[in-house]
Amino acid sequence: MRFTAFHRLAAAAAVALGLGQTALAGPPEGVVSAEFLPGWQTPEGTYMAGLHLRMAPGWKTYWRAPGDAGIPPRFDWAGSGNMASVRVHWPRPKVFQSNGLRTIGYEHDVVLPIELTPREPGQPMELHGRVEIGVCHDICMPMELRLSGLLPGEGGSDAIRAALAQRPLSAREARVGHVNCQVEPISDGVRLTAEIEVGALGPNEAVVFELPDPSIWVSEAAMTRDGGRIVAQSDLVPVDGAPFALDRSGVRITVLGTDRAVDIRGCTGR
Fold this sequence. Notes:
Layout (H helix, E strand, L loop, with lengths): L1 E2 L8 E5 L5 E2 L8 E10 L5 E9 L4 E3 L11 E3 L8 E4 L5 E5 L2 E7 L1 E9 L7 E12 L2 E13 L5 H9 L3 E2 L8 E8 L2 E9 L8 E5 L6 E2 L3 E5 L2 E9 L14 E5 L4 E5 L5
Parallel strand pairs: 1-13, 2-13, 14-22
Antiparallel strand pairs: 3-4, 4-5, 5-11, 6-10, 6-12, 7-12, 8-11, 9-10, 12-13, 15-16, 16-20, 17-21, 18-20, 19-20, 21-22
Protein name: Disulfide bond corrector protein DsbC
Organism: Rhodovulum marinum
Keywords: Signal
């Protein structure tokens, strides 16, 4: 797999609310098209919308933790009006293996539910967003989408609800038992070993560790299963290449299966 990580396509997609699908211009033509989906106001006063990405055959894009060979998505909402916070809800991704490398993401198409919290509830929101995603086939490259428009709007609810239904289960929903983490220093960081009591999620299970600090490199987790218990291990290497104190409560663990996934927040020491 050949990467062009420092090459950025010159064209960006301007996706206007209510205008439907807007295709990305520029080479390679037709790789990705994007559509913004207005949704609904939630009982909590937030607003649920969605970003629908369609990939050309053979192309894929990446989950929030894309693996060593992937390009992590980035979101910038600077300049938005009446916007206090934005939260992306990630549907369950797929694990890909290519040339001995593991990546995690989506193929064909995906709807990313976006939950927006207004500064002033009940007032319109002016959305300005810049979304950087990676797309990959034989080569991988970053692409940029730009979103702008006013909320609330109408349409897209069914697709957004379907995507929300595809989110990983919480630890409580999946009846996860004890989640214990052991941390030991290594020459350039620390090694994290997690023991997780969770039922089988189908064939080809994988474990992904995430940390609050994105600058810390996290290796692909090696895992084994023994009945209702998983043991997974990753090396965590900070930019200074030295052991560090790890806050176990901030560790996010996702167990991915073919048909289900579980999102676990935090773990305890033995």
